Amino acid sequence: MSKQKPQVNPMMRQVQKMQEDMVAAQEALASETVEASAGGGLVTAVVTGSGELRSVSIAPEVVDPEDVEMLEDLVLAAVTEAMRMSQELQSQRMGGVTGGLDLSAFGLG
User: What is the extent of the structural domain holding 46?
Assistant: First the structure.
């Protein structure tokens, strides 16, 4: 009598595949970037798809020692928008992997 190996539950295979796809999507997000600007392009922020701020560019003409507050506001606006765009990109990419399934209940989201 031959012993049969237990079959891996099809649901477990799906979960394993989803985990592999999530890792691949996270790696891809780390290499993708989004860019946002403020002040008509005077300040630009670049953020990776995984939420890492990569760079901030400031046009020389916006640097006014008499109005540092305006420059701070432009930097904040550009970074905030780039971070929002990064989160949106994450949602799109990860939503495609999980099929919209909320994984936070499982500690995965």
Answer: 32-59+78-91
